[in-house]
Amino acid sequence: MRYHKLLLLSCRSLFAKNQTSSRNLLIERNGVHRRFCEPVQLQNVKNKLFNIPKHSFQIIRCYTDSDSLKPTISYTISDLSQETYHRLSEIALEYLLEYFENLDDRLNTSAFDAEYSSGVLTLKCGPSGVYVLNKQPPNKQIWLSSPISGPKRYDFDSKHKKWFYHRDNSTLDGLLNEELSTVFGAKIDVSIPTG
Questions:
Q1: Which of 22, 37, 89, 172 could share a disulfide with 41, CB 3.0–4.6 Å?
Q2: CA-based nearest residue to 173, from 192, 194, 148, 186
Q3: CATH architecture of 82-184
């Protein structure tokens, strides 16, 4: 174990001294940043530390510290009763309507309009397009049609109290925050309550 810690620290010090070297490979996969040592670097590190012959080592990974290494939340579809689904989806859509009506007053733009009727929330964003959010009681979902990212179907996770898209684990409020902040050029912070 000590050998691995020493080797890891040595690799990190090599990276610190030589950040722009083509020998350092930074790879991002699934939001995780990893930095790999090339064989020449590993060989030099091992030879310096342990006087090991050149042919007796294997390539190992050296990791850098990164904020993106923090664990992500994994959402799970909850089995909701019809009554619970209707209550949660109504709370979400009515909250969004109120939030966007107040946003319209703050932004003072005539190109924006929010309407809610029969379980369908429509957000008209002028030349940026129209967002439609609607209840889907048979599936116990909220469906979103976005002019930017297209259609998505959101399920509810009771543990984390979030509406989430199971294919990419994104949340409904997270997507709306990101896209509408871009559309309006102002920070949008929708935090959908759950009751």
A1: 37
A2: 192
A3: 2-Layer Sandwich (3.30)
